């Protein structure tokens, strides 16, 4: 995949947080039970797409973390402290 294609794909893919928020809204609408069947099916389909996209994003993030951790297996990890700068 070329750099231009990657950029285009990134621009077309909503941010993880945006997708998660949309997915939560879809679940709320579906749980309300007030949608007509066709609308509910469309919402469900969109929800499945968002869930798969989110799962893919999380898997990629996990792979990046594993690569970073495996880069130098001999170096010890330091305790994380949000106050440390």
From TrEMBL:
One of its GO terms (cellular component) is exodeoxyribonuclease VII complex. It comes from the Bacteria. The gene is xseB. NCBIfam families: PRK00977.1-1 (NF002137), PRK00977.1-4 (NF002140), xseB (TIGR01280). It catalyses: Exonucleolytic cleavage in either 5'- to 3'- or 3'- to 5'-direction to yield nucleoside 5'-phosphates. Belongs to the XseB family. Coiled coil: none annotated. Heterooligomer composed of large and small subunits. It is found in: Cytoplasm. This is Exodeoxyribonuclease 7 small subunit. The lineage of its organism: Bacteria, Pseudomonadati, Pseudomonadota, Gammaproteobacteria, Enterobacterales. GO terms for molecular function: exodeoxyribonuclease VII activity. Bidirectionally degrades single-stranded DNA into large acid-insoluble oligonucleotides, which are then degraded further into small acid-soluble oligonucleotides. Its EC number is 3.1.11.6. Keywords: Cytoplasm, Exonuclease, Hydrolase, Nuclease. GO terms for biological process: DNA catabolic process. Its main location: cytoplasm.
